[in-house]
Specification:
This protein is of the alpha/beta class and about 220 residues long. It contains seven helices and ten strands. Helix content is about 30%, strand content about 25%. Strands 6-7-8-3-9-10 form a six-stranded mixed beta sheet, sandwiched between helices. A four-stranded antiparallel beta sheet has the order 2-1-4-5, covered by helices on one side. The chain starts with a strand and ends with a strand.
């Protein structure tokens, strides 16, 4: 699904923040991306979500060279990559339901065509009773689950989650991890960026460990 070959990334004229990365993300796989603060985890995620292009090397996503994807191809490819941001990025004037449905609304879909899907997904993440409230009323954990639902509504092939448990307590972190595991069982590849060793020890999964821009892989 995603492959990196000798990839390097630098911002401006500075030193490389990522160097010589070579790895693959297989279909229906589950992995943690970890490393100390400043190791380059967010930069690596941004390369995977096509928000950045590599300075050198080759990034391929769904068999396409990331640097050669045209502007017309980009939206359909990005829809196959769901992203859960650490800061949620929910719109405060929209209800939970409307936030989750927003990607479909932007694509011009009629509300009648997705209403049942959004409702079912919100129930799956435990927000069935909170779908008509605004984000300021939600707890941090509820906001995170809403953000996860929004990332899943387009049924992505790959889900990237940037510190999805960083703002919640340990019991909720375990619940969120179970959601990601269940999603993986449906066929979606999952990549969770985290520094939480306790969370990673909950399941046996591949670890991509970044340190000073270099990658080590532990299967």
């Amino acid at each position: 699904m995603i492959s990196f070959e000798n990839v390097g990334l630098r911002y401006g004229l500075g030193q490389e923040v990522l160097s010589d990365l070579t790895f693959q993300v297989a279909p229906n796989s589950f992995q943690f991306l970890t490393g100390p603060s400043g190791a380059g985890k967010t930069s690596l995620l941004r390369l995977m979500m096509l928000a950045l292009k590599p300075t050198r090397g080759l990034v391929r996503i769904f068999e396409k060279n990331a640097t050669e994807i045209t502007r017309t191809e980009m939206p359909s490819i990005r829809r196959r990559v769901g992203v859960v941001f650490q800061d949620f990025r929910l719109l405060s004037h929209l209800t939970t339901y409307e936030n989750v449905a927003l990607p479909l609304l932007v694509r011009g879909k009629e509300e009648t065509s997705y209403r049942s899907d959004v409702t079912e997904l919100l129930r799956w993440v435990g927000l069935g009773e909170r779908m008509h409230v605004l984000p300021p009323v939600l707890s941090g954990g509820e906001k995170q689950r809403a953000a996860i639902a929004r990332a899943l509504i387009d049924q992505p092939s790959v889900l990237l989650a940037d510190e999805p448990t960083g703002n919640v307590d340990p019991p909720l972190a375990r619940r969120l991890l179970r959601l990601f595991v269940e999603l993986h069982r449906t066929g979606t590849s999952v990549i969770i960026a985290t520094h939480d060793l306790t969370l990673m020890d909950q399941i046996n999964a591949r670890r991509l460990v970044l340190n000073e821009g270099h990658l080590q892989i532990y299967d």
